[in-house]
Amino acid sequence: MDKPLTKNIDLARGPLDLAGYERAGGYQALRKALGSMSPQDVQQAVSDSNLRGRGGAGFPTGKKWSFVPMGPQAPRPKYLCVNADEMEPGAFKDRLLMENDPHLLLEGVILSAYAIEAQVAYIFLRKEYVLSARRLEQALGEAGQAGLVGKNILGGGFDLEIHLHTSAGRYICGEETGLLNSLEGKRANPRFKPPHPQVSGLWGKPTIINNVETLCCVPGIIANGAEWFGKLSRTADGGTKLYGVSGRVNRPGCWEMPMGSTIGEILDRAGGMKQGYRLRGLIPGGASTEFLTDQHTDAVMDFEGLGKYGSRMGTGTMVILDDRTCVVGMCHNLMKFFARESCGWCTPCRDGLPWVRDLLWALETGQGQAGDLDLLEMHTQQLGPGLTYCALAPGAMEPLIGALRHFRGDFQRHIDQKGCPWRR
Amino acid sequence: MITIYVDNQAYQAKAGGNLLEAVLSLGLNLPYFCWHPAMGSVGACRQCAVTLYKDEQDTQGKIVMACMTPVKEGLRISLQDRQSRDFRARVIEWLMANHPHDCPVCDEGGECHLQDMTVMTAHDYRRYRFAKRTFANQDLGPFVNHELNRCIACYRCVRFYNDYAGARDFSVLGCHNTVYFGRSQSGPLESEFSGNLVEVCPTGVFTDKTLKEHYTRKWDLQTAPSICVHCGLGCNTIPGERYGTLRRVQARYHSQVNGYFLCDRGRYGYEFVNRPERPRTAMIRRDGQLAAASAEAALAAARELVGSARGLAGVGSPRASLESNFALRQLVGAENFYSGQAPWLDDCVREALRQLQIGPATPSLRQVEQCDAAVVLGEDVTNFAPMLDLAIRQAVRVEPMELARQLKIDLWLDGPVRELIQDRRGPLLIASPAATKLDEIARWTYRSGPAGVVRLALATARELDASLPVPDGLDEPTARLAKEVAAALAKAKSPLVVSGCGCGSVELIQAAGVLARALAKVNSAARLSLTVPDCNSLGLAMLGGKNFRQALEALRLGRADTAVVLESDLWDLAPTDAVESALAGKRLVVLDHLPGRTVQRADVLLPAGTFAEADGTLVNNEGRAQRFFQVFPPQGDIRQSWRWLGDLAGRNWPNLDAVLAELSSALPDLAPATGAAPQANFRIEGLKVARQSHRYSGRTAITADVTVHEPKPPDDPDTPLTFSMEGFDGIPPAALVPRFWSPGWNSQSALTRFQQEVNGPLRGGPAGVRLINPGSSGGTAVSAVSGESDQAGPQAGRLCYQKLLVVPAWHIYGSEAQSMQSPALAGRAPRPYLGLSPADAAQAGLQADQRITAQFDGQSLSLEARILPSLPRGLAVLGMLAGQPAVQLPAIIDPPPKGAP
Ligand SMILES: Cc1cc2nc3c(=O)[nH]c(=O)nc-3n(C[C@H](O)[C@H](O)[C@H](O)COP(=O)(O)O)c2cc1C
Ligand code: SF4
Ligand code: SF4
Ligand code: SF4
Ligand code: FES
User: Fold this and answer.
1) From B178, which residue of chain A is nearest by alpha-carbon distance?
2) Ligand 3 pocket check for B157: Cβ under 6 Å
3) Which residues does A contribute to its contact with B (CB < 8 Å)?
4) Ligand 4 atom nearest residue B258's Cα
5) Phi/psi of residue B477, each to 5°?
6) How many angstroms does the Cα of residue B370 sit away from the middle of ligand 5?
7) Which ligand approaches the C-alpha of residue B66 most closely?
8) Could you count the other beta carbons within 10 Å of the beta carbon of residue B608?
9) CB-based burial of residue B712 (10 Å sphere; 0-12 exposed, 13-18 middle, 19+ buried)?
10) What 8-state DSSP symbol labels residue B806?
11) CB-based contact B110:B122 (threshold 8 Å)
12) Could you give the CA distance from residue B853 to residue B899 in angstroms, rounded to a whole number?
C-alpha cells in the first residue's frame, strides 16, 4: 500500500534534509505543477481527488479553494495559512508530519499557495511544538536557498514567502478565524461568517486556512493524480488517513492507513488493550467528538461513517476509555480543558462550560445532587451548533452527550453513592 | 418597507437593517446586551436569540441571533416560542451565574439594563451553586467607578472605548470566564469620552463617580431636557437633581447632534452648580463692602444705578441664553450692548457666523460622521469641540467602508467590517500649530502657525478652483501637500472642511470658507464646519452687539458710567490693567452664578440661575437653536438672568414666551428660535410633562422637617414642564423629553421606545431649529484672502528667532470656566504653561517645567515652560486656562527669560 504521508518517515533516523527529500522524489510535484499546470489545474486535481480537510470538519478542500477570487482583479496579497495549532486533546498527527517530514508540508504549502495564487503563507504552529519549529525552520532555510520559496520559484515566475509563526498557546487559536485574529496580533476570538476568509480573511484579504495533514496530501495528488489518490481510500473520501490511538492500549501511536479503516483495525494497530484493561468506550477523533462504545469497533472511520452512531471522525485520533477509568472523571478532565480554553466571547461557552465542569467535579467528589444530570443535559442541548458563536462549545459538549447516552448509569451512581465508584 | 412575520403577525420593517433593530423599532420586546445602536452587532452575548422559520410549513425553525440576521422580505420569526424563550432564559442564567446580585448597593440599580433583561426573560431562580469568580477593581480616575464583579462580558465597553472612541489605555484582558475589562493597571482613563462607559455598560461595572458623591436613584431624580453649556457644540443632556443639588448629567439622544454620547467635560462639568462659593444671595455694596441684601432691595438698588446712569454699557455673555442676552440688550439699548466674548475670539466668532451664512452648508455632528474626507484647519477639536473628535473618528471609516459595500457586507456587522477594513482610513488632514490627538488617525499632518495653515488652505482651494490666486510665499512641500489633499477632497463623495475659532485667526476662518466654496464648486455635497468657543457664542454674535474693546473704551472715556454685566468675568476678556482702568470710578451691576473678580467688584450682585435653574435657548456652532429647561426651581434669591433683567427693565414679561415674542419682533432673523421647543401653554392630554418620575419617592417627606403638609409644587409659568410627578409621563415631543424610561425598560435603553426607528430621530422629529440658511446673507463672499496679510510679525517657519508667535492651546479640562468649578474636572487641568519648541527652549536656555514670566501686551503671566516637540520653531502655545489673566492671542512676545524658581 502507498503511504504518501509517511513514506519518508523513519523515527529513528529523523527527517530527510532537502537533498534526501528530493532523492525520495520530493518537490517533483511542485516542478510538475509549476512547469505544466495552471493554478486552476491544481485546484481541479485537488477537487477531483475528493480530498477533505483533515483539521476535523472534513470540508472538501477543492471546494474551499474555489471560493478564492482569482485572476488579476483579485485583491492582493492573498494568504495561505497552515493550521498547525493541533491543540485538540488526543491529537498528535500533525506533529508527526512536521517533525519527521517538514519538506512534505512545505511542498504542500507551495503547491496550494500556487493553486490559489497566494503570495504569502503562514504556518501557525502550536506553542509547545518546539521540535517541529526547529525542523520546519531548518527546512525553510534549505528551501529558500534552493529557490523553492521566495521570488520566482524554480524560475516559474511564482513568488511565495513562507513565515513560521509560533502561537502563544491557546486552543481557540486553532479555530480558523481565531487563528487569523491571533496572527493579526488581536485576541483570538473567532470571527463571524460570512464573509468567509476566502473573501475577507487575514488583514481583510482572501485567505485559505488548511490543516497540516490536508496540505501534506497535496503533493501526492499532484504527482500521482486524483484517481490514484481516490484509490488509496476504501471509501468515497480520498486518500490515506493518519489515525492515532491513546489510552491503555499496548502501542499508543499514530499510523497511516487507508481512509475508511474501521475502529477495530486501528485498535489492532495499537496492539489491543493492555493486559487487565477492557475497552469500554472511546472518543474517536480528538476530545470534541462523541463517545462510542465497545459495540462500535466495526464502525468505519471516515467523514461519513460515524454519523449513524451520532459521532464523527474529527481528527481521527481516538482516546480510549477503559473499564478502570471513570467516565465522569474523564469528562471532567475534558471539561476542565474546554472551560479553560473558552475564549470568553460568547455567553453559553464562557459561563456554561465552567458550570458543566463544576457539576462534574461535584459528582466526582460526592457533592452531586438530584437534578444535576438534568443540568448537564440542559447544557448539552443549549450549547449546540448555532447557539454559540463558534464550534468550540458544541465540540466540548460532544463527549458529554455521548457519555450521558452510553454511560448514564455511571453518572447516576455518582449521585446515589455520593462519590466516584472508581475512587474507592 | 418590507413585510416580516413575528409570531405569525405581519409587520412592516425597513430592509437592510438587522432583525433586532427591526423588532425594537416595532416596539416589541427582545432582550439584548452586546448590540448597541451606534456600534452595531457582534453576536457575542447570544441574548437576542429568536426562532427563524424557513416558511409557513416549517414548524421546527432554528435559533438565530436577531442582531446578526439581516431583515429580508417575508422573514418569519417567533419571539414567543418555547425554544427561543428557553434559550434566552438560559443565557441570562449563565450571565447571572457569577453576578454578585448586589443590586441594593449597586449604583445602576433601578436603571439597569441587566435587571430589565433578567425580568424580561423571567429568570428568577439561581441554580448555579458553585463559587463565583471575583476580580480586583481598579481606580480609573475621578470620573468612572469600576466594580468588575458585576460584569457580564458583553464587550460593549471595549468596543466603545477602543473601537469607537479610538483610545488605547483600556482593553479586555485574560480569557474564558475571567475576561477582565479594565486598564493594565489603575490610573485615570485617558479618553475624553470615558464617561460614556457609564451609559454603554449595561450593568453596574462602570458608574458615575461624581454621582456616587451624592448618590440618588434614577427614580428619585428630578430631570429635564437640557443642553450642554461647556462648548459650542450643543450636545443634548439630561441633568438630574435631588434636594437642590445637581447629581449627574446623562446624554440625551439627538439624532443630529450628539447621538448617544457626551464628552467628559459635558458629563462631569456640572458641579459648578453645587459649589458653595457660588453667588447665591443678592448683594449690595455698602461702605465699600458687598453685603447681603434682599432680592427686592438689590433689584431696587440696581434699578437705581441703571436709572441714574449717565451712559450704560451692557456686557452680554456667550455662556448665557439668547433670552438673557436679549433681555440685557433691551435693558441697555442695542447701541450699548456689547459682547462678553474675549475680543480676539469675538472677531473669530463673527467671522465664523459670516462664513456659515455664505455657505456651503454646515453639517450636524451626525453628518460629520458620514463625511468621507476631511481637513481640519488650525483646530485641536479634541480639546476645543470634543464631540467633533468622536464624529471625525467615525468619518475616517466611511471611505474604507466602501469596500464592505462592494462585498455586500452589512455595515452594521461590526466585526466583519472592522476585519475587512482593518486600519485603513479615509483622507484626513490635520493642520495645526502643535500635535493633536487626532493626528493618530490622520493621513497628513501639517505643523504651522495660522499663516501657514491659511496658505495651505488657499493653495488647496486653488488646486480645486483655478480661478483663485496662488497664495504668496507658497513653499514646495506645502504646494505638494495641497495638491494631494485637493485630489483626495475632489474624489470624495462628501468632503468636509473643519476650522474655527481655536487658533484665534480670522484669516484662517476665511480661508476655510474659501476652501469649502472651492470644493463646493467641484462637489455640491461639500460641507463647512466651524467651531466656536462657548455654548452660545453664535447666538450672542447673532444678537449683533459691539465688541468688548468698544465697551472698555466707552467706559474708559466716560461715555458710560454704569456697566451691567451678564454672566461674564470681565477679567477673562481683557488684560487686568485695561479692565481696571476702564472700571475705575464706574458702577457695576453683575448677574452671575460663578464666583470671580467681576462678582467681587460688583456694586450690586444679582445671583443668576445656572443652566440647571434656568430656561432658555442656546445656538450651537451649526446655528441650531436648542432650548434648555430648568431642572429644579432656583432657590433663595437666585433667578434666571432674563427674569432679573426683565424686572430691571420694567418689562414684566409673564414668561419665557413673552421674551421670545419680543425677541422675534426685534430681531426677525432669530424668530425661528421660538420654535426650538413647544411653548409654555403646550399640553399633552391636558397635562404638563412631569419632571419627576412616576416612582419619585418621598415627596411628602422631603420637607417634613419643616412642615408635615405636602407643599404645592412650584409653578412653572415658562415651560410645558412641571416640577412634579403629576403630569404626562409618556413620550412627549423630542424637545421636552425629561428622561428615557418606558414600561419594562428602566435604563437608558428605553431610548429605542422614543426613537421613530433605531438610530432615527426621536418621535415627532428632532428638537431644535437651524437659524442659518447659507446664501441668505447675500453675496458678501470673500473670494480670497491672501496668505500673508494676516501676520504683522514674524511667520512661523521663516523668521528671525528673536520673537515668538503665541497661539492658544485649548484644554478639555481647564479652558472652560464653568466646568473648572467642578472638582473632578479641575483636578485634571494642566498648570498654566507656555509650550515652546525644543529649539526655542534651548535657545532661551529653558528646561521643561521651569517657571518663566512671559510678557504679553499689557499683561505678564507667570507660567511653566513646556517643551512640545511637535511645535515648529518660532511658534509657541499658551495653555488656555480659565481664570488666568487674559491676553490677546495670537500674540508676538519676546522669548521669556527665566523667572524666579
Ligand atoms: C476550537 C477549535 C479548534 C480547532 N483547532 C484546530 C487545530 O488545532 N488544527 C486544525 O487544523 N484545525 C483546527 N480546527 C478546525 C479549523 O477551524 C478548520 O476547520 C481547519 O483548520 C480547516 O482546515 P482543513 O479544511 O484542512 O481541515 C479547530 C476548530 C475549532 C472550532
Ligand atoms: S464558543 Fe464562544 S466563547 Fe467559546 S470559544 Fe467559541 S466564541 Fe469563544
Ligand atoms: S464591563 Fe460592562 S460593558 Fe464591559 S463587558 Fe462588562 S458588562 Fe459589558
Ligand atoms: S462636546 Fe461640548 S457640548 Fe458636547 S458634551 Fe462635550 S462640552 Fe458639552
Ligand atoms: S445582542 Fe445579539 S448576540 Fe448580543
Assistant:
1) A344
2) yes
3) 170, 172, 180-181, 184, 187, 191-192, 194-195, 199-200, 203-204, 339-348, 350-355, 358, 362, 375, 378, 382, 386-389
4) 4
5) -60, -40
6) 25
7) 5
8) 28
9) exposed
10) E
11) no
12) 5
Quick check: B850 and B880 in contact, CB under 8 A?
A: no
Distance separating alpha carbons of residues A82 and A85, to the nearest angstrom: 9
B108: three-class secondary structure by DSSP? coil
pLDDT of the residue at A251: 97
What type of residue sits at position B356? L
Q: How confident is the model at residue A1 (pLDDT cuts 50, 70, 90)?
A: confident
Helix H or strand E encompassing B555: helix B548-556
Ligand 4 atom closest to the CA of B819, numbered from 1: 7
- Atom number in ligand 4 closest to CA B267: 5
Q: How many CB atoms lie within 10 A of CB A85?
A: 28
Phi, psi at A113, each rounded to 5°: -60, -40
Name the band, by pLDDT with cuts 50, 70 and 90, for residue B794.
very low
Number of residues in chain B: 901
B566 phi, psi to nearest 5 deg: -100, 115
- Is the pLDDT assigned to residue B900 strictly greater than 60? no
| Averaged confidence pLDDT in chain A | 97
Q: How far apart are CA B790 and CA A341, in angstroms?
A: 64
Omega cis (within 30) before B416: no
Mean of pLDDT over chain B: 95
Instruction: Decide if A257 contacts A331 (C-beta within 8 A).
Output: no
What Rg do the C-alpha atoms of chain B give, in angstroms?
Answer: 28
Reported as type and span, the H/E element at residue A257 is: strand A253-258
pLDDT tens per residue across span B110-122: 999 999 999 999 9
Note the ipTM here.
0.96
The answer to whether the CB atoms of B68 and A192 lie below 8 A apart is yes
Given the candidates 1.20.1440.230, 3.30.420.10, 1.10.10.10, 1.20.1250.20, the CATH classification of the domain at A327-423 is 1.20.1440.230
Distances (CA, A) of B633 to A137, B215, B279, B591, B614: 76, 20, 16, 17, 8
Overall average pLDDT of the B45-59 stretch: 96
Find the mean pLDDT for residues A318-325. Answer: 98
Residue ranges of domains in chain A? 18-232, 242-322, 327-423
Residues A383 and A394: their CA atoms lie apart, in Å, by 5
**DSSP state, B32?**
-
B153 touches ligand 3 (CB under 6 Å): yes
Kindly report the CATH number that applies to the domain delimited by A18-232. Answer: 3.40.50.11540
CATH topology of domain A242-322: Ubiquitin-like (UB roll) (3.10.20)
Question: Using an 8 Å Cβ cutoff, are B246 and B273 in contact?
Answer: yes
pLDDT of residue B710: 83
All three cell numbers of B762: 426621536
Question: Nearest-CA neighbor of B371 among B264, B508, B523, B509?
Answer: B523
Domain architecture of chain B: domains with CATH: 2-97 (3.10.20.740), 103-274 (no CATH), 283-341+539-666 (3.40.50.740), 351-532 (3.40.228.10), 804-893 (2.40.40.20)
Helices then strands, counting H and E runs in chain A, come out as: 15, 9
Residue A322: what are its φ and ψ, rounded to 5°? -105, 175
Q: Which three cell numbers stand for residue B251?
A: 446624554
**Do A304 and A108 contact (CB within 8 A), yes or no?**
no
Q: Which residue has the cell 462580558?
A: B153
State how far the Cα of B729 lies from the Cα of B817, in Å rounded to an integer. 35
pLDDT score of B800 more than 50:
no
Segment among A10-24, B157-171, B703-717, B748-762 with least mean pLDDT: B703-717
pLDDT tens readout for residues A165-211? 999 999 999 999 999 999 999 999 999 999 999 999 999 999 999 99
Question: Which of B192, B229, B262 for a ligand 4 pocket mutation test, highest count of atoms within 8 Å of Cβ?
Answer: B262
The residue among B899 and B353 whose pLDDT is bigger is B353
